[in-house]
Design brief:
Organism (chains A, B): Falsiroseomonas stagni DSM 19981
Keywords (chains A, B): Hydrolase, Metal-binding, Zinc
Protein name (chains A, B): N-carbamoyl-L-amino-acid hydrolase
Mean pLDDT of chain A: 94
Family (chains A, B): Belongs to the peptidase M20 family.
Distance between the termini of chain A: 9 Å
Radius of gyration of chain A: 23 Å
GO molecular function, one term (chains A, B): metal ion binding
Oligomer: homodimer
Chain lengths: ~425, ~425
């Protein structure tokens, strides 16, 4: 399997044949029972929050498939779970692949978990095809990617990559007031039988490469009838909180000219931000998704309005100046109220490695699959691997572009295509 | 005290002198202890919701002052409480005066309760001045004017006037799930010692006139340095609920051109409504005070946005066509979402009786007080009396125009002025 240059892949008919569509689909179905529910429209969703009993159960289920194959488990201080396929060359840097196992509260059966199961399927196929690899391959399940229970998401990959210290979120609490640190300690205690490993590149060696398979969460592959998305990168994100303060008044008595109405100034501010964010190319993403008004009484002029801004763009030349202009745009749009603008998250666009992209594209094409290069609009753990090692992602189609919803769906053939491409990519990279 | 025509009043120095500034102020202070609290700014507020133990206590306190004077108590099926000063002419229609004793949750010491205490002070002054009146005078405390615990407000006066059947709100529940009907029954049981009377004009005779003293709840009298507001009427109100339905999407992946963003369509709708409601004369009142967004997540495009409209105007020629245009304005402003518009309250402007206004103005001027005619922006029980009998209101200044807040304040001299004017008005009307 040694490649002649950095992007070529050999055809691997035995390996491709060793990927089992039915086995992978059955595992997806078994995982979907942990936190599974059926919504009012008959869709089968999953609610499996990070560090819950269900999350622990899903990890045990994964181990029940991985350990009989001879894969070696380990867990780090953030609860990131690894399954190692050993390579033939002592000390060679590992190729890593995986994703996360937690879900959104009203989530689907594929987001995250499929990436972990595809990595297992790929490694199992490599082993069952009798292929040795020079480098080890490590399957990874990152802790708390979704951030639905404990915000923000991507805690596992952020700590692993040194992006944040590992104790950053110990005092973060969920909606019931439970501490992240306590739930993490409970997970580690429950998995005391699994060997502890150093925390990522903070305490251990850099991997050779990282590849994350994921559903697209958008409509492009389906609408264009394509099999595989070769992901070029993840757009940058800047999140803001705008808090407007006015003055309450009686809705019947206070003349409009004398009011300091926080709702009206909020509307003016959103109008101004819409103008700032106007983009004829439709690449920019600008969302006001959360609004809170106080006292929120129908016959009282509001003295408080808070709203969030989720602004994303793949190009730093747009992301940085437009994001920097938000504060001044807000202040200029106010008429009678005061406002504070707080940036709560700032992630520059991540560009995936050209070698990994080329390897994915070549593997897919050698299998007769159609591809396109495309950016990811959503966050993924992969973005925190970009500064660490050559990183890439493999997308498969999402029906209707739906994700974070029980209607999320990819076909058995589509997820099998993804696992076959991943198997060939891992085999190729692990022999570089 | 017989007047020579319908608007003249005689000077009544003995009566004016019989009004006690200190006695009234002390009663206001005693009432303010029932539900009293001190807020973070040191203001002394009141939280005395309708039909609570505190409300019952305040009625007993009122009775403890009224009964020794010889006033006759009675209560009707809605819990409206009456204290009757008997007249000299058998069967003559009564003059009524009063207001309500319940408060807003974060309310002040004057809104409502002062109107009842002013009526008591006026009647006590008439009796202590040794004046007989031809007509009886009835002090009234209406049940649940504020609507803060059980919505809507003005239940007592609406049922009394036949505006709504008396059992309309039996199943209305407060925030703890307690039924209005049960709390009303408990009040009536606790006041079984008080004679029951027929319910208003539904079961009994029409009064001769009704006069309600109240704080202004606006800044006009204070800013113009005037003593007494002669209220010309209550502006009309129309309340609407707008519910916008779009579609959730991932804030990072969904192109703006494909979204059905309920927040963005809500902003468009509010812009359009602002244009519809633009009023260079600043008489119109238009308020969006309550907003709810769903799922209200910072990185999810909203599929639901609900907001309230509180629209008021004193002129039906504005209130009716602009209110009727709201639905079409909403629908025309939508781009991708659907919306429903529901009118939840509709009260035409109420015009107070010219004779009552003239009597109030003449009484105030005969006492050397300055006056202005002015509309009321807020609701009052008086508006439901307008179709029943000649009705009017007396306003006194509110410091800073503040009401429904612990900072609500009028001076001892201002509330005494109001009681003196009311005493002369009642004596005049009760001798017509």
């Amino acid at each position: 399997m040694a490649a002649s240059d950095s992007t070529s892949v050999e055809a691997a008919p035995n390996l491709v044949a060793a990927v089992s569509e039915s086995r992978q689909w059955d595992r997806i179905a078994q995982m979907a029972r942990l936190g599974g529910f059926t919504d009012a429209d008959g869709h089968h969703g999953v609610n499996r929050a990070a560090l819950t009993k269900l999350d622990r159960d899903s990890r045990r289920l994964l181990l029940s498939w991985a350990l009989p194959l001879g894969l070696k488990p380990s867990v780090d201080v953030l609860g990131n779970l690894f399954l190692r396929h050993e390579g033939t060359e002592p000390g060679a840097a590992a190729v890593m692949a995986g994703s996360h196992m937690d879900s959104q509260p009203n989530g689907g059966r594929f987001d995250g978990i499929w990436g972990v199961l595809a990595a297992l399927e790929a490694v199992q196929a490599i082993r069952e095809a009798g292929m040795a690899t020079k480098r080890p391959i490590e399957i990874v399940a990152w802790t708390n990617e979704e951030g639905g229970r404990f915000a923000p998401g991507c805690m596992g990959s952020m700590a692993w990559s040194g992006h944040r210290p590992p104790d950053t979120w110990n005092d973060t609490r969920d909606g019931d007031g439970i501490r992240f640190g306590d739930e993490l300690a409970a997970l580690l205690a429950a998995e005391a039988d699994i060997p502890r490993r150093p925390l990522g590149i903070v305490e251990g060696p850099r991997p050779f490469a990282y590849v994350e398979p994921h559903i697209e969460q958008g409509p492009l592959l389906e609408s264009e009838g394509l099999d595989i998305g070769v992901v070029t990168g993840i757009q940058g994100s800047r999140w803001f909180l705008v808090e407007i303060e006015g003055k309450t008044d009686h809705a019947g008595t206070a003349p409009l000219s004398l009011r300091r109405d926080a709702v009206q100034d909020m509307v003016r501010v959103i109008n101004a931000l819409n103008a700032l964010m106007a983009d004829p190319t439709d690449v920019l993403r600008f969302t006001v998704g959360r609004i809170e008004v106080g006292p929120n009484s129908s016959n009282t002029v509001a003295d408080r309005a808070r709203f969030t801004i989720d602004f994303r763009h793949p190009d730093p030349a747009v992301l940085l100046p437009k994001g920097d202009a938000i504060e001044a745009t807000v202040q200029a749009a106010l008429t009678t109220c005061r406002a504070t603008v707080t940036e709560r998250f700032h992630a520059l666009p991540a560009r995936f490695d050209a070698m990994v992209q080329d390897t994915i594209e070549a593997a897919a094409r050698s299998q007769g699959l159609t591809t396109r290069r495309m950016p990811s609009g959503a966050f993924h753990d992969a973005q925190f691997l970009v500064p660490v090692c050559p990183t890439g992602m493999i997308f498969i189609p999402s029906r209707g572009g739906v994700s974070h919803h029980p209607a999320e769906y990819s076909t058995p053939a589509q997820v099998a295509n993804g696992a076959r491409v991943l198997a060939q990519v891992l085999a190729t990279l692990a022999n570089r």
